[in-house]
Amino acid sequence: MRLLRGVIRKSENHSPKGHGKLVILEFVFQGRTLFALYSHLSLVSVVRGTKVSQGEVIAYTGNSGNASAMAGEDQHLHFEVRTELDAGRGLAGRVDPKTLYGRAPREYTIVESHGQKRLLNPSGTGLKINAGDMRRW
Fold it and tell me: Does the predicted model carry a pTM greater than 0.90?
């Protein structure tokens, strides 16, 4: 079985009012170059340019950035699949993980903006994964 491989394109501590500690991984999926963003991390174990394989630990979830005051069920890993490294604000330049992989934790996607949550059907474009759901996925 061939493991998926990728390269870390960003490993940084973003704005305290934004993503906080984050990692962006560049990878190829079905011939398409994509970028996976993981943010609100507590500890990052890779640096920019690191080549990684599927299953390697690249970071640990946490509550950095604008998630620093969150507790309990509000703590989460912010995960995005992007079509470009710096996708900017909003949902443009992002792909719903469920459309790529055929599933998402809890079988739905959550988009949250300024404290307003809404559930999306499988055609949604963002994902917020609660810590408890990560263990089951």
Answer: no
